[in-house]
Amino acid sequence: MDVAVKGRNISVTEALERYATEKVERIARFFDDGRSVSRAEVELIHERNSSNPEPEVADTTFFINGTVLKARVASADMYASIDMMVDKLERQVRRYRGRQIDRWHGQRERHAQEETPQPVQFAEEEAEEIEARIVRTKQFQMKPMSPEEAALQMELLDHAFFVFTSADTGEINVVYRRRDGNYGLIEPAR
């Protein structure tokens, strides 16, 4: 596994880099069945705000065969942040592995009934009242997957929605978490 450790507003010492690398590499032990963890990116950040009681942040992105896991933890000590970040990442990996094993053994039942997608309706507002602007742009590769895989990926990232390419149709779809705890799927009209 390739582990990249970088710092922001902090110089990453050899000891700190070694500590972070060793901790993150332990997560790979969950994947002894031939699945490979391709890489992990660890960013150690010292936030420059004197009023922040927890300025030491450990932020990690873990790439596992097209699946992305993220963990971010802040504390008063960088080593403690790394430890808590690895604990959080380990819980995510265990949940991910548990769901994968359940799916492989056919023990999971489908939680959502097939519904006919309803068109999304937006409230109309006057153009001069809308002042929203794009403040951040993200780019990512969208591998073809099923809606179930996309919902799992969304849960692992702890996001409210996930954009993906449908393995069945090759079109862009969106899966999202509904208020009732189920998932919704948005797909283009044909």
Main sheet record: 4 strands, mixed
Question: What is the H/E order?
Answer: EHEEEHEHEEE
Oligomer: single chain
What is the mean pLDDT? 78
- CATH homologous superfamily classification of the largest domain: Ribosome hibernation promotion factor-like
| Residue share in β-strands | 25-35%
Uncertain regions spanning at least 5 consecutive residues: 107-130
How many domain regions?
2
| Spatial ordering of strands, largest sheet | 1-2-3-4
Tell me the structural class: alpha/beta
What gross morphology would you assign? globular
The end-to-end span amounts to: 42 Å
Characterise the protein shown here:
With 190 residues, the chain is of the alpha/beta class. It has two domains: 2-104, Double Stranded RNA Binding Domain; 136-186, 2-Layer Sandwich (SHC Adaptor Protein). Helix content is 26%, strand content 28%. It is built from three helices and eight strands, in the order βαβββαβαβββ. The protein has helices at 14-25, 78-104, 147-157, and strands at 2-8, 37-46, 56-64, 67-75, 144-145, 161-166, 172-177, 183-186. It has a four-stranded mixed beta sheet with strand order 1-2-3-4. Strands 5-6-7-8 form a four-stranded mixed beta sheet, covered by helices on one side. Helix 1 links the parallel strand 1 (2-8) and strand 2 (37-46).
Outline:
This protein is of the alpha/beta class and 190 residues long. The chain is built from three helices and eight strands.
List strands and helices in order, with pairings.
Layout: E1 2-8, H1 14-25, E2 37-46, E3 56-64, E4 67-75, H2 78-104, E5 144-145, H3 147-157, E6 161-166, E7 172-177, E8 183-186
